[in-house]
Amino acid sequence: EVQLVESGGGSVQAGGSLRLSCAASGFSFDDYAIGWFRQAPGKEREGISCIRIRDGSTYHADSVKGRFTISSDNAKKTVYLQMNNLKPEDTAVYSCAGKYGYYCSDALFLYDYWGQGTQVTVSS
């Protein structure tokens, strides 16, 4: 059974940090790119970070560049999103997703598997 399970969400004050985890199982992890997406109330889901598992190449959207860092522990089949200097506008449900093939994309339809999401709330 394919699973992507997020954890690590919560409530923090502006300027704080959180680390999200995405634990993968049931598919060939090395052949995938794993992306983090977020959806704020009333807004469309947006891609914010992605990592190519095979070579560790990463991508971050301009909105989070310099504050968020994506990484992976291939032995644990887990992808992390370290979020620093959080802002109220980062409040959203964060989800990870797996895309077959080595290249990252922010096109939602290219992703095969999705986690259930975890809530991140940043207060001012």
Question: Care to describe what's here?
Answer:
The protein is mainly beta and 124 residues long. It has strands at 3-7, 10-13, 18-25, 32-39, 46-52, 58-60, 68-73, 78-83, 92-100, 113-114, 118-123. The radius of gyration is 13 Å and the shape is globular.
How large is the share of residues in beta strands? over 45%
- Give the % helix: under 10%
- The secondary structure category is mainly beta
Radius of gyration based on Cα positions:
13 Å
Structural shape: globular
Largest sheet: 7 strands, mixed
The overall pLDDT average reads 96
Instruction: Give the SSE order as H and E letters.
Output: EEEEEEEEEEE
Beta-strand segment tally: 11
Q: What's the tally of helices? A: 0
Unreliable stretches (pLDDT < 50, length at least 5) are none
The first-to-last residue Cα distance is 40 Å
Detail the topology: elements first, then pairings.
Layout: E1 3-7, E2 10-13, E3 18-25, E4 32-39, E5 46-52, E6 58-60, E7 68-73, E8 78-83, E9 92-100, E10 113-114, E11 118-123
Parallel strand pairs: 2-11
Antiparallel strand pairs: 1-3, 3-8, 4-5, 4-9, 5-6, 7-8, 9-10, 9-11
Short description:
The protein is mainly beta and 124 residues long.
Descriptors:
124 residues, mainly beta, seven-stranded mixed beta sheet, four-stranded antiparallel beta sheet, 11 strands
